[in-house]
Specification:
- By secondary structure, the chain is of the alpha+beta class.
- 22% of the residues lie in helices and 40% in strands.
- The protein is built from four helices and 32 strands.
- The strands form nine sheets. Strands 2, 5, 6, 8, 11 and 12 form a six-stranded mixed β-sheet that branches.
- The protein is rod-shaped, with a radius of gyration of 56 Å.
- 17% of the residues are buried.
- The chain binds 2-acetamido-2-deoxy-beta-D-glucopyranose (5 copies).
- The site of one 2-acetamido-2-deoxy-beta-D-glucopyranose has 5 residues, from strand 11.
- InterPro entries: Ig-like_dom, Ig-like_dom_sf, Ig-like_fold, Ig_I-set, Ig_sub, Ig_sub2, Striated_Muscle_Regulatory.
- This is Ig-like domain-containing protein.
Length: 385
Amino acid sequence: MSMIFRGAMGPASQSLVLFIVFCFITTGTVSQNSHLNVTILSSKPTFGIVGQPKTILCQVSGTVLTTVTWYFNGTRLSISSKYSWTQRLVGGRADLTISVLLKSDSGLYNCSVRNDAVTVSESTILSVEEILHVTVHSGTETGIVGQVKTLRCNVAGMPITSVQWSVNNNTLVNNEMKYYWDTSSTPNLYFESLTIADTGMYTCSATNHAGTDFASINLSVVATPMVTIKNSRDLSVNEGGNVLISCAITDTTTIDSLQWYFNNKFLYHSDPHYFWSCINGMKVPFDGSLRIYNVTPQDTGTYRCQATNIAGASEDSIHLKIVPKANGNAVELISVKEIGLIVLGSLLAICIIVIIILACCLRRKKERKKTTTRMESSMISHDQS
Ligand SMILES: *[C@@H]1O[C@H](CO)[C@@H](O)[C@H](O)[C@H]1NC(C)=O
Ligand SMILES: *[C@@H]1O[C@H](CO)[C@@H](O)[C@H](O)[C@H]1NC(C)=O
Ligand SMILES: *[C@@H]1O[C@H](CO)[C@@H](O)[C@H](O)[C@H]1NC(C)=O
Ligand SMILES: *[C@@H]1O[C@H](CO)[C@@H](O)[C@H](O)[C@H]1NC(C)=O
Ligand SMILES: *[C@@H]1O[C@H](CO)[C@@H](O)[C@H](O)[C@H]1NC(C)=O
């Protein structure tokens, strides 16, 4: 075969082969010299923060002098106070630095490198984000058991990658039966029906590449107070003593007012006859018990304890009986009816006595008359004889 090949080759053919070999070697050398590789080292996509500088890292590996051009959304950039990079280099870094980012700097950045032989490029998307600012409507909120409730939260800044609510540092799951929130710049938290267990510190947080911001609300859920008078139902006290009517109230910290009534009449704190803790407007632990000093029979009646908070009011009552002193004051204790009866009885007795005396007098008078008649008749008979 080699003999056939050699035999077929003339002098012209031999020079063509030599030329091809020469060309191959020459081209190989050129491509080796102008070998270019451009790599954007920044993460893709890359993120920046409004108002801050940003550098997009671009690595060039080349062996001859290379010209670097940067493009933004297809438009060629020029070096200025805003943009800077090394325009001519033999391999190395052609990083683009943007001095102060604006929201409008978001877009496609293209690092293009060229030498005498080739042009290569690579691009990345830059997203410029604002620092988020989370605010809540109010730092403390109160809710009532069984009612709906909204905790208001507002997020300023764009874009918002995620929003999250948590209670006492435990993250909540959105769109549960119990509560849900809008995934927007107003991620208000909605409760379908509050329970006492919902009391806690709620934190609204929003995140993007610029960071996370949050704000908290302390929610307290209040139920109608439970009022219970602890004394035995038939409370009886001796006149002159002191009485303690013990009134127990659940969750005293939520109570706005506590009021005592006697036979449905408002009792006044200023009345020194009574004493109970005055807590109007003051959310402090207190004792709801009523003390009555030096009781008299006039204190007999119904006592009612009423506690109020934002959820409502509840009350309990008790009947108090004062046992009068048995001695000196007995007369006071006799009723008008009894006095009437005594007077009537006395009058009756006097009448009877008078009647008896009269009857006696009458009888004696009759007897004397009889004796006189007898004497007269005997005298007459004596005269006759
Ligand atoms: C280009 O450069 C990068 C970074 O140095 C390297 O990982 C990659 O392998 C190079 N590619 C080629 C084709 O040389
Ligand atoms: C650049 O392109 C992006 C889309 O890739 C676009 O959202 C943005 O508005 C463009 N910016 C300018 C200044 O043209
Ligand atoms: C970079 O820009 C140049 C010039 O507009 C274009 O030819 C090239 O395709 C772009 N490269 C990339 C990766 O977008
Ligand atoms: C909410 O409660 C926490 C812990 O009890 C407390 O540190 C924080 O100051 C409270 N915040 C407000 C706004 O009252
Ligand atoms: C909640 O977490 C933050 C940060 O992790 C911590 O500083 C704070 O003390 C925690 N609060 C509670 C109530 O656990």
